[in-house]
Automatic annotation (TrEMBL):
Descriptive protein name: Glycosyltransferase
Family matches, as InterPro entries: UDP_glucos_trans, UDP_glycos_trans_CS
PANTHER family: GLYCOSYLTRANSFERASE, SCOPOLETIN GLUCOSYLTRANSFERASE-LIKE
Domain of life the protein comes from: Eukaryota
EC number: 2.4.1.-
GO molecular function, one term: UDP-glucosyltransferase activity
Enzyme class: transferase
Record-stated family: Belongs to the UDP-glycosyltransferase family.
Keyword annotations of the record: Glycosyltransferase, Transferase
Organism from which the protein derives: Spinacia oleracea
Length: 488
């Protein structure tokens, strides 16, 4: 009989935005499901609900219980509004800067936790580059979690190092990303406005610190699977020299309907009602539209989307986030839109059970803002996408989906912007054209078949013996070895 391995304690410290906390919980689940691995998640008082369902008081994974460690968030100290424990871009740039400052002030509580609890590994979000130093004080290896795919990690680093956006004649002129195995073109307008500005900015400094911490840390864990982007997994490790483990798609750690429905928040629609509606539709006949957890669309844009949906004649589920609070005053909604599209379309105001929806056979396409969680959830469900990037690394994700994987159609967004302006909106004609192309264009079958092949690969990667399963095993073995060496 083999000797039982000593318990490994892994602490997760996600950034307090849903796009970071949701996959962190999935990863925590993956680790806790392994033999003799104990898991702690660090969060703040108002974010506990992202991890623990309202009707439960702990997270159980098989026989293990995930510990939750709560840090006080210094909202008042930096002048953030009461109750602001997730970044809200509608508060403006100054407040976002304050949010980052408040996050950095968590370092003292982190050090105290590390000193007292002594986990064997700290998985800290990319936005906490300072966490590497905190962990190093106690000889604890720190892993970075970005929530990016390999392609975007490579593209972002290549753009940062080579600055191919400089010396162009205009913001609209295309340039090729150097040193990549595929020819990927972008314009200066499609890269982050912090790079475009040229001078030192708050975010530019953060990204530089993030990139340095990738190198200074023990390594990087990536929510992707090798077969999806082998060229870029290799490039990231071999050419860019990062130690990295691919462990995704982490959303596939959700097995029950309950877990798939409750991801981050209580949904604004009953999950069974939503599934019943979908089950009344033919396979591949419904378009799902959702722009993630942070991006908010201006009214004019929502109106254009509504007009495009109606003109396309397609069936749809449309998630409108910024309408949740003022459902009565919806100026963007065309008169009697819901009466005219009754039975054909469903608007979810607020939060949708996205994973359950995407996995339903009735879904034929996903209009996405290309947040990596959503993109990978679309890939894992085998659903072709209309790509509609807004900011962050979303324009890179778009290129992966449309140019490399060839499972998407771009809606044609020209400009990266945290808060898109009225002159930047996508017109109804462009939206309608993309909807028609993804649902009935001449490449529909090929695109669907490719998407289904990636779905099969994704599921295989997380099964016992699959590439991501094996990478998690290798990482756990390595961390145990590190821990043993520290003890001797
Ligand atoms: N999500 C959800 N319901 C919603 C909106 C988003 O479950 O109505 C989930 C989605 O499944 C994904 C995450 O929230 O896991 C959003 O992350 P992503 O990286 O796609 O975008 P972000 O919110 O970070 O921009």
């Amino acid at each position: 009989m083999g000797v039982k391995a000593k318990e490994l304690h892994v602490a997760f410290f996600p950034f307090m935005a849903h796009g970071h906390m949701i996959p962190a919980l999935d990863i925590a689940r993956l680790f806790a499901a392994r033999d003799n691995v104990k898991v702690t998640i660090i969060t703040t008082p108002l974010n506990i609900g992202t991890f623990i369902k309202a009707n439960e008081n702990s997270i159980k994974i098989g026989a293990s219980i995930v510990n939750i460690q709560v840090f006080k968030f210094p909202t008042k100290e930096v002048g953030l509004p009461d109750g602001c424990e997730t970044p809200d871009f509608s508060l403006g740039t100054a407040m976002i800067h304050n949010f980052f400052k408040a996050s950095e002030m968590l370092n003292e509580q982190l050090e105290l936790f590390l000193e007292n609890v002594r986990p064997n590994c700290l998985v800290a979000d990319m936005f906490y580059p300072w966490a590497t130093e905190c962990a190093a004080k106690f000889n604890i290896p720190r892993l970075v979690f970005h929530g990016f795919c390999y392609f975007s990690l490579c593209a972002q680093e290549i753009v940062r190092l080579h600055e191919p956006y400089k010396n162009l004649s205009s913001d609209e002129e295309t340039f090729v990303l150097p040193c990549l195995p595929h020819e990927i073109q972008l314009t200066r307008l499609q890269i982050s406005e912090d790079l475009r500005k040229g001078e030192e900015t708050f975010f530019k400094r953060i990204i530089n610190r993030v990139k340095e911490s990738e190198v200074d840390s023990y390594g990087v864990i990536v929510n992707s699977f090798y077969e999806l982007e082998p060229d870029y997994a290799d490039l990231y490790r071999k050419e860019l020299g990062r130690r990295a483990w691919n462990i995704g798609p982490v959303s596939l750690s959700n097995r029950s309907t309950e877990d798939k429905a409750y991801r981050g928040k209580q949904t604004s629609i009953d999950k069974y009602e939503c599934l019943k509606w979908l089950s009344s539709k033919k396979p591949d006949s419904v378009i799902y539209i959702c722009f993630g957890s942070t991006a908010s669309s201006i009214d004019t844009q929502l109106h254009e989307i509504a007009m495009a949906l109606e003109a396309s004649g397609k069936q749809f589920i449309w998630v409108v986030r910024n309408s949740a609070d003022n459902g009565k005053n919806e100026e963007w909604l065309p008169t009697e839109f819901e009466q005219r599209t009754k039975g054909k379309g469903l608007i979810i105001r607020g939060w949708a059970p996205q994973m359950l929806i995407l996995e339903h056979e009735a879904i034929g396409a996903f209009v996405t803002h290309c947040g990596w969680n959503s993109t990978l959830e679309g890939i894992s469900a085998g659903v072709p996408m209309v790509t509609w990037p807004i900011f962050a690394e979303q324009f890179y994700n778009e290129k992966l989906v449309t140019d490399i994987l060839k499972i998407g159609v771009p809606v044609g967004v020209k400009k990266w912007s945290r808060t898109p302006l009225i002159e930047d909106i996508m017109k109804r004609e462009a939206v309608e054209m993309a909807l028609r192309e993804i649902m009935e264009g001449k490449e529909v079958e090929e695109r669907r078949n490719r998407a289904k092949r990636f779905k099969a690969m994704a599921h295989k990667a997380v099964e016992r013996g699959g590439s991501s399963y094996t990478d998690i095993s290798a990482l756990i073995t390595e961390l145990r070895g590190y821990h043993l060496r520290q003890q001797n």
